[in-house]
Amino acid sequence: MTRLKDIAEVAGVSIRTVGRALKGEGYVEAGVRERVLGAARSLDYRPHRLARSLRTGRSQEVLVLAGGIGGQYDELHIAKIAGMERTLRAAGMSLGLLFGIESEARRAGRDVLDELIARRPAGLALFASPTLPATATARRLDQARVPYVFFDTRESDVDTVRHDRSGGIRESVRWLAGRGHQRIAYVGPTDERSRLDGYLEALKTLGREPLIVPGSADWETARAAAPALMALKPDAVQVYSDILALGLLAGLHEMGVRVPKDIAVVGFDDRFAASLSYPPLTTLQQSNEAMGAAAAAILIAKSRDEVAPPGGWSRTLPMSLVIRAST
Amino acid sequence: MTRLKDIAEVAGVSIRTVGRALKGEGYVEAGVRERVLGAARSLDYRPHRLARSLRTGRSQEVLVLAGGIGGQYDELHIAKIAGMERTLRAAGMSLGLLFGIESEARRAGRDVLDELIARRPAGLALFASPTLPATATARRLDQARVPYVFFDTRESDVDTVRHDRSGGIRESVRWLAGRGHQRIAYVGPTDERSRLDGYLEALKTLGREPLIVPGSADWETARAAAPALMALKPDAVQVYSDILALGLLAGLHEMGVRVPKDIAVVGFDDRFAASLSYPPLTTLQQSNEAMGAAAAAILIAKSRDEVAPPGGWSRTLPMSLVIRAST
DNA sequence: TTGTATGCGTTATCAA
DNA sequence: TTGATAACGCATACAA
C-alpha cells in the first residue's frame, strides 16, 4: 500500500510536489512530473479513500436507504441501485446500502436521519415509503447540507426521479385503440391518480366512455375482479400493475376467457414475472437503470455544489411499452 | 458533530480519558466515567467512522460484488444482500455494493481484485459467476488477508454459503410421493448435478424409475418441453427452477393439461413470480435472508481473526417447501 | 517552481 | 488513575 510519502522518496521530491503532480494542478516542472508519475505507476499507487475523506470532510460514499417494505425485496429496486452504482463509480464515488432502517429506528425510538447525517455521506438516495415523510426529511437534509434525492415520491416539493406514469398509460391506451380495440377498461386502485389520469385523458381524447373496475389492491383481489371486469364487456384492459395484471390473468383463466383472443391485457412495471406468465404480459416498462443513473447524476451534481437547473433537480423519465403475447 | 475533544472539554478531562470511559476499558474513576458519559450523551456524540478506520487500519465496510449477469437483476440476490446488511449493521459494520465490476475491468484490462483489496474492506462477499474464478480469487484474498465469502460456489475449496439443493429436491419428491403421486418426473438441465442427484436419490429410495426430460434451459425451451414430458405419462413433476416451471406451465396450458388436476408441478427458488402465476406455484424456497445473515456472520468472525470451526467456514442451509396451488 | 508544517478525529504509546 | 502526544494518509496554507 504505497503512500504519497513513498512516491516522494522514490522520485526524490517532497510530498507536496507529488500531490501537485498527481492532481495536475499548479506548477510542476515537466521532468519532475514525469518522474513522479512514473514512480506512482511503478509503485501501484492508489489514494487512500478514508484518509482523503477525513481530510476533506466529505465522504465519497452515497448512502441508499431501501425500505424493506414488509420484507419483500424488489427487483425493480435492485435495478435502480445498480444504475446508481455504475454512475457513481464512474465518478469515483461508491454506494452504501441500508435496509429497513426507518422501521428499526422507530421501534428503538431513535432518529435515523441524525445517524445518517452523522456518517457525512456524499449523498443520500431514499426510496419513498409510507413511513418516511418525504417533505420533512428533505428539509432536514437540505438544512444539514446533505445532497439527497428521492425515488418516486408523490410530494412535489422534494427533489425526485420518477417515471411518467400518466404518459405511459396514455400511450398504452392509444396503442390499444390503434390496434382496433373498442372497449378499453382499467383495473386498479383509484386513489393513485397518475395512472388513472393517464387512462382518463386517453379515453377523453378518443371520445370514449371509461370502463373502470376499482378497488383491486393485490393478486388475489385482482383475480376476484375478473367477473366484474368481464361484465363491462371490454376487449382490452389496462391494469394498474403487473402484480394485479397477473392476478387478473388467473381470474380470466378460471372463467375460461382467452387472452389475448377475447381480451387484451396490459400490465405496468415490467417485473420479471411479466415475462414468465401465460401468456407473457405486455406491459409498461420503467427504465430502472436509467432512473438510478439519473438519481446518481443529481447527487453528484449536488455534492459538487453545482446550481440546480431552471426546472429544479427533479427528473421525469419516459416509460415504454414492452409488447408480449397478452395483446 | 461533536468530537472526543468536545466531550473532554465539557467533562473537564483529557481526550484519552474520554476514550477510556466510552470504551469501558482500563481504569476510570466512577465519578469521572459518569461525567464523561453524560457529556457524550448530551452532546449527542457519534464516533467518526472514517477517522477510526484510518487509525486502526481497518475499514468497517464489507464490499459485496454482485455480477450484473446480462443486466438481469435478481430479487434473490437483493434478499441475500438485505440479510447481510442487517447482520452487519447489528455488528457496527456497513455494506458497500458493486455491480458487474469484473466484466468492466476485463474490458479495461485492469485487475479488479487489486482495486478491491486496495480499498481495505472489512470483508468481501462475492456472488459466484462464470466469469469469476472462485478458487484463484479465494487464494489471492487469503494471501491479502481480506476476509471473503462466496455465495453458491460449486468449488469445494472456497468458503461459501449455499443451499442444500439435493436435500430440498429429495424432500419435495418424497412429499409428492407421500401425497400419492406415482409417476414423478424431472424437467431441467442435467449438467447441474446437485438437483438431479436429489431427484435420483429420492426415486431410488422409493424404488421407482426416473422419468427425466433433459435439456431445458429457459422459459421458452421449458414450454416446448411440455409434450415430451406428457409423453412420459407423469402425474407430478419436479422442475429445475421456477423460471422453467413457469415455462412448463405455459406449455401445459397450451396442451390443455390441467394443473394440478392432471399433473402436479413443483418449482425451485421461490421467486416472486412463483406466487403470481396461474396456478400459483408450489416451490422450494431458499432462505435468502438467512443466507445473507450467515455470510455476514462468517465475514464478521473472520475479520475478528476468529479461528475457523472444525468443519471450516462454509455453511449449507436447508430449503423448505412452499405449498401453493400447483400441487 | 518546490518544500515545511499543520490538521482532519481516532487510537495507542508512554510517562506522570 | 490520568494526561501529553504521536501517528494513520491525505490535502493545503503558507514559506522559501
Describe the secondary-structure layout.
Two copies of one chain form a homodimer.
Chain A lengths: L3 H8 L3 H9 L6 H13 L6 H8 L4 E6 L8 H16 L3 E6 L1 H8 L3 H7 L4 E5 L6 H10 L4 E4 L8 E4 L1 H14 L5 E5 L4 H14 L4 E4 L4 H6 L1 H6 L4 E4 L2 H14 L8 E6 L12 E4 L2 H16 L11 E3 L2 E3 L5
Parallel strand pairs in A: 1-2, 1-3, 3-4, 4-5, 5-11, 6-7, 6-8, 8-9, 9-10
Antiparallel strand pairs in A: 10-12
Chain A binds a DNA duplex (16 and 16 nucleotides) through α2 and α4.
Word description of this protein:
The structure is a homodimer of 327-residue chains. Chain A is built from 14 helices and twelve strands. In chain A, helix 8 links the parallel strand 3 and strand 4. The mean pLDDT of chain A is 92. With 327 residues, chain A is an alpha/beta fold. The radius of gyration of chain A is 26 Å and the shape is elongated. In chain A, helix 1 packs across helix 2, helix 5 crosses helix 14 and helix 9 runs parallel beside helix 10. Chain A has a six-stranded parallel sheet, with helices on both faces. In chain A, strands 7-6-8-9-10-12 form a six-stranded mixed sheet, with helices on both faces. The first copy, chain A, folds into three domains: 43 residues, no CATH class; 134 residues, Response regulator (Rossmann fold, 3-Layer(aba) Sandwich), CATH 3.40.50.2300; 121 residues, 3-Layer(aba) Sandwich (Rossmann fold). Chain A is 46% helix and 17% strand. Chains A and B meet through helix 4, helix 5, strand 2, helix 7 and helix 13 of A and helix 4, helix 5, strand 2, helix 7 and helix 13 of B. The first copy, chain A, binds a DNA duplex (16 and 16 nucleotides) through helix 2 and helix 4.
